[in-house]
Queue: 3 jobs
Job 1
Amino acid sequence: METIKNYLESLFAGLPNTPEVWKAKDELLQMMEDKYNELMSNGANENEAIAQVIADFGNLDELAESLGIENFIHNSQPKNGMELSLKEAKDYIADKSTNGFRIGLAVLLFITCPICPIIGDAISTQVAPGSNVGGAIGSCFFLIFIAIGVAICIYSGSFMKKWDTLRPGNYYINPNTAQNIYDENRNNQSNYALVRTVGIILIILSFLPAIIFDEISNSEFINELLSAPLLFIFVGLGVLLLIATSQKEDAYKILLSLNDRSTVAGNYVPHSSKENVYTNKTVQAIMSVYWPTVTCIYLIWSFITFAWGITWIVWPIAAIINNLINNIYGIKEN
């Protein structure tokens, strides 16, 4: 019976996503089920029953008038582009997930790079007062962290370049693949929620080590060595989890939006607003983590200085920079 349902989905995939079409689809499914059960009860095997049902009800042109969808059949549009197989869809999800972790790792390096000069200065002050060797070494590692993060972002953009053409009009997915992807994404929602919750908790609790060490330790060296570094680490790990999760979830949404949303095959996701696509791949990789990074900067600055009345200025400045980048590199597409 599953074969019959999949066949029915393919028959209606290109028809408009309207109540009339859905009603006709349900009626035809019921007729197919009744015929299948009748054939099975009369001694036919499964393959014979499926073949007979498809032979009797497999031509929508002949059934269109009785189902009340004759106008929709004549006005339906042919599919554009190539069909993306289930294996290719799974490969895209795996690549997108892996790339999400890479981008999250790059942002983690950007966020935690200030730890290097902080620890270097603290050790230098404790071990060799008056010497700035520790600070110099820390500054070197600061630049190394940034360089590695930038390299990861560039590699991430190149890694996903093979999927640049994955967009509506170039590809579509059949109903069976769409249902499989939709079910998998729905089953993963609890995992997404758990990982996002852990990430947000890490960011919220990032200031906790500073409070604890300030209360339990009288050593300025211990406070400098652990308080600020742990704050950056907590925030960085939290953002890494948020980015990795969002990238994987985006993969499912992109795949489910390949089909024309005005048709039955494209009913898995709601209409979305226009999104920015950037002409420069490095900018595309950077902008994919732009707002999480701005949030981290805001939280770190706020919790270190507690100057909440001033740190809000981060948001309007970030919005201006975002608009400038969008105007220079961004193009709009549905």
Job 2
Amino acid sequence: MREIADAGPWMAAGLAGVLGLLVGSFLNVVIHRLPAMMRRDWLSESVGNLMRWDADTPTLWSQVFGPRAAAPAALERAAAEAATALDGLPPLTLSRPRSRCGACGRAIRWYENIPVLSWLALRGRCAGCHAAIALRYPLVEIVTGLLFALCGWRFGLSPEAALWAAFCAILVCQFAIDLDTQLLPDDLNYPLLWLGLAGAALGWTGVPLAEAVWGAVWGYLSLWLVYHAYRLATGKEGMGYGDFKLLAALGAWLGAHSLVAIILMSSLVGSVLGGGLLLAGRLAHKDVPISFGPFIAGAGLLCFVVGPQAMRQWAPFAFPFG
């Protein structure tokens, strides 16, 4: 174990990269299932709010419209039917059920789930129904493996490397989830924020704790102010609160002085990503909304890959406060 801990940068990068490939396979599960789990929870809460559980508990309907108001019978029937249907659903967690083909429902065998290699061996198609398996699955594994390898190269096999690997893993998830669903789950934003603050307190991120706290504060407030200014000017909502929380988390990791650089990087990521989506035909219609979260998450990853010293050398104007 000591020899592994004292491994040189190439060995550390290799071991961390292999671990990253395995973690990337799990991240694909998170990206696919977490939004579905969230929506199931939201529907359960909505249905529960419409139903009267006992005579002494007022329904949400009566709380909003008055104690004598009753929900329409058709709505109560629909809520009851939805509750019954929800109760009949099989469990859905990050570990249950086993991974299955989205087209035919066939359970994926262990040897068909080896990161990257299985996708190549299957030629990107299900072994049962031969439906196409999205290229994103091996891409997430490869990107995660490379990011973990970079963590191992920079920090060795150390707690700092593990902390930054968690940073990368969460941002990969947020990037893909928001790109697919326009959601930035709090279940990922909050751990990212607290890990950044804890890392600063332990001295593992290189950012003083006070600067990490102010980074979180100003990261949140900056987009909060932009959001409300845009809403007052146009009557529309330009972004969601998840974007505020994500930038706050990045401020905790990278410090208040890096916020301008993160915003500039997000513009760069947005230009590249928007151009790619346009070429792919996903932005063919002007009414298709574009999430800001992938730009922020991509900017955080890009800032980590480039590193603070290189960022200061390449764009000193992006650090007006430090």
Job 3
Amino acid sequence: MKSIVGDLFYFPNLEYFCTLLNVNKLYLNPSGLYKRKSFFNRTQIRLANKVETLSVPIVGRRPNIPLGQVEIDYRQKWQKIHLRGIQSAYGKAPFFEYFFPYIEEIFEQKPQFLWDLNQKALTICLKLLQLPVKLEILSEQQEFPDLEDQRGTITPSGHFLERGIYQEVPYTQNFGLDFEPNLSVLDLLFAEGPSAKRILEASLKKH
């Protein structure tokens, strides 16, 4: 088991959780700078006819602000859109009724900052996956020279095949005949329930 420094994403994809296998402590740094077009405020789910990107709107478009200070824009009714999308995508999935209340509760809390929303989501997903990863928040002054730093590794601009972390292990998805890899962890949880961790372990690319 090891400790790493990593990113904090919005309902992260399977590749992200593959990096947390065999990790017992994940250090997160809210003083890192926000970058547009990242997974910090977006995730992907599978609807009947397409893969849909769910994005959390943020207040303003100020570049170079700390991640911990990015505010959620509640003037837009994005929670209803996201919950409706998740229900539409996974309402008939085998484990939807078991796991959806945990997800719904996160939206109902309405945190001011996206960092807090993502941290709550990650905590719940780790619990449902039965991954014993402890989250540690770094202060701005803390240094971590001895830790593996994985920040910036997983980005929307690159393909998972190029990174060599995750390999496609098909499971039964709610829609479509062709398997769609590396979606939000919600896709795996609602489809596989208690077997999700086993699928995830098989998805970790062996080097």
